[in-house]
Amino acid sequence: MAMNQISAPNLPPGLFNATMAFGDRPLSYGRTVCGQFYGNFPDSRDCKDAIEKLPGGPTAIAYVNDGRDGPYHIPQATRSGNCMVQVELAGQGNPATFQVAPDTIRKMASRVRGVCVEGSHAGGFITWSLEKMAGWLTSPEGELDAEMPPSTSFLTVSVTTIVPEYISPGNYDPAIASVFAQAEYDAAAKMPPASRLGTKLKARGARLLRIAQVMDPRGRRIPWWSLPPNLDQAGGAAVAGSPAAPGSVAGAAGKPETPPGGDGEAGTATARKARRRRRGGMGEEGLMA
Known about the structure:
The chain is of the alpha+beta class. Helices cover 29% and strands 20% of the residues. It has helices at residues 45-52, 102-120, 130-137, 169-172, 174-189, 196-212, 269-279, and strands spanning 4-5, 19-22, 31-40, 61-65, 73-74, 76-80, 83-90, 97-100, 122-128, 154-161, 287-288. An 8-stranded mixed β-sheet has the order 1-2-3-9-10-7-6-11. The protein has a 3-stranded mixed β-sheet with strand order 5-4-8. A hairpin with an 8-residue loop joins strand 2 and strand 3 (31-40). The radius of gyration is 18 Å and the shape is globular.
């Protein structure tokens, strides 16, 4: 299957710390990201077995986003030997369900196995429906500090070594921030020179690049919509890491603070509970072994 490397001429050198590639349909909008922090694999047999434990079927199903155990609930994980496959939603939208065919999830996991595990003996992840979030972020209504609509959520399928919690690369991997930054710059380039929206898009792209440079998916995990730590606090922007900073991460490494949800759905007790299931530890009950 032919692969085209992403070129990102507008991004600072060294920003991408992972191999990224476009997939073919039905994964035409998917990004495959490979990185050593997702694990090292001398061979792919365990990952093949873990993928085969995922449910199959060609028809789209409404996966329930409630964190409960079951073949059509998300997040979910399967494992075999030293390999784990994790299926999660990303973004702040927190929809009740997400429509996708089980076979699509299997194909996504198999793509990561082929590109990352067999290609570089490393783990990685792939995205699905990323264009929904990118489209909203580049629209006049798009905001990083506002509650994101449920329709903007996208799917990630990760292939990783055994870990005790969901790794949520769609929220915490710097490659995602970089992709959205490029989308902002590309959209701004199509605007008239004096466009207020174009100026807004470029500023948002610059902010996403800054946060990408300090994100660490296996360390002090910062979601890509956070305020970068180098923004001017005196100018009204809080510094990420400060306990009072909206959208920031505080506390122990690897334990992200719940993003702000306001008074809407993302701020309800139910939504907070769902986010804890999605981003917290899994335990044995969260694994489909």
